[in-house]
Write a structure and sequence with these properties.
Blueprint lengths: L16 H10 L11 H13 L5 E5 L2 H12 L4 E6 L3 H4 L4 H6 L2 E5 L9 H6 L11 E8 L10 H13 L3 E6 L2 H8 L14 E5 L9 E5 L8 H7 L8 H11 L3 H20 L6 E2 L7 E5 L5 H7 L3 E4 L4 E5 L6 H15 L1
Helix pairs in contact: 1-10, 2-10, 8-11, 11-13
Bound molecules: pyridoxal-5'-phosphate.
Pyridoxal-5'-phosphate binds next to α3.
Length: 344
């Protein structure tokens, strides 16, 4: 049978040719280490341009590291973080966030779309000034969310407003930030600096880099300790140029928008296919590159043989199908054929 792409995760995909080329180009001679090289400097300037801000940018190896660095820059170990109960920082980063920040994480029940709202946050703003209670210091949201849904710029601004009114910082886990901006048809700045976000974990890996993410700091109050934390949590790469070079390729001429739009478009195509099967129920709005659906349990195995995917919630047979920059119409057609076979 033909080899199809997996729908398990966008981090199953390989590396964009443009990124590979940038890595090759960066691989000449010696360069200053720990981010003092020319490529990193150039890329930082590019970040300022695309985020329309005078930002501080720290390159890291992975998304967990980006989140840990972002949160630790904004907190002391007696602080508490408010996040969605579905969030990656709460469910999928082992205890790294707690270990490296010392903070307590309060999971708030997210709405059906996996989003927090100002109201949900306000209800948990309690016991400020009480030494017996971990002091709330930061709200973390994910864009696009763990359910593949989107916060609009207005929704982010509203959350930032509540956070700031109560002396909290707003962090965005932007592991799939490029997919979000592409789907919203907005700039990267519209859903970060211009929406009053304080600190962003910007994902590169899922969009088509080999590895590497960036912490983008918009609020200068968060820069005092961050360089030290960057080193302390083992995320300061001596050969930073190879992470920066990949981001330079992604940001130049908005390559990110092209590749993320494609992945998003593939998720829409997948939705059209799945909507035709009465045995399948699409469970969340398909807004970025993820699709959630309930499918008959007996279908898991035969489908996964050729199209690996994650079972999200076994009790309701809800699965997650994720499209990547290299998902093709043929992959979707192949999946459709497999479904037809099972639905007979
Ligand atoms: C929402 C979200 N945040 C962060 C991450 C980063 O994880 P990693 O540490 O595996 O790069 C992921 C990866 O799956 C994710 O889905």
């Amino acid at each position: 049978m033909k080899e199809f792409k997996s729908f398990a995760s966008d981090n199953y995909a390989g590396v964009l040719p443009q990124v590979m080329e940038a890595l090759q180009k960066a691989n000449t001679g010696h360069a200053r280490s720990y981010g003092a090289d020319e490529i990193t400097q150039r890329t930082r300037a590019l970040f300022d341009q695309v985020f329309e801000a005078n930002a501080n940018v720290y390159f890291v190896f992975n998304g967990t590291g980006a989140n840990v660095l972002s949160i630790s820059a904004a907190t002391q170990s007696y602080n508490a973080i408010l996040c969605a109960d579905t969030s990656h920082i709460y469910n999928d980063e082992s205890s790294a966030p707690e270990t490296f920040t010392g903070c307590r994480f309060f999971p708030l029940t997210a709405n059906e779309e996996g989003k927090l709202t100002p109201q949900i946050i306000k209800e948990r703003l309690i016991r400020s000034g009480d030494v017996h209670y971990a002091q709330t210091r930061l709200v973390s949201i994910t864009q696009s969310t763990e359910y593949g849904t989107l916060y609009t710029p207005e929704e982010i601004k509203a959350i930032a407003h509540v956070a700031h009114q109560h002396g909290l910082f707003l962090h965005v886990d932007g592991s799939r930030f490029f997919n979000a901006a592409a789907a919203l048809g907005c700039s990267l700045a519209d859903i970060s600096s211009k929406a009053d976000v304080d600190i962003l974990s910007l994902g590169g890996t899922k969009a088509g880099m080999m590895f590497g993410e960036a912490v983008v700091v918009f609020n200068k109050d968060l820069v005092e300790h961050i360089a030290y934390k960057h080193k302390q949590i083992m995320q300061l790469a001596s050969k930073t140029r190879f992470i920066a070079a990949q981001f330079e390729a992604m940001l130049q001429d908005e390559l990110w928008r092209k590749v993320a739009s494609h992945a998003n478009h593939m998720a829409q195509q997948l939705q059209q296919v799945l909507a035709r099967y009465k045995e399948v129920k699409i469970t969340r709005p398909v807004q970025a590159n993820a699709l959630f659906a309930e499918i008959p349990r007996a279908w898991y195995e035969p489908l996964q043989e050729h199209f690996p995917f994650y079972v999200w919630k076994d009790s309701t047979h809800e699965v997650r199908l994720m499209c990547a920059f290299d998902t093709t119409a043929e992959d979707i057609a192949g999946f459709d054929a497999a479904l037809q076979h099972l639905a007979k």
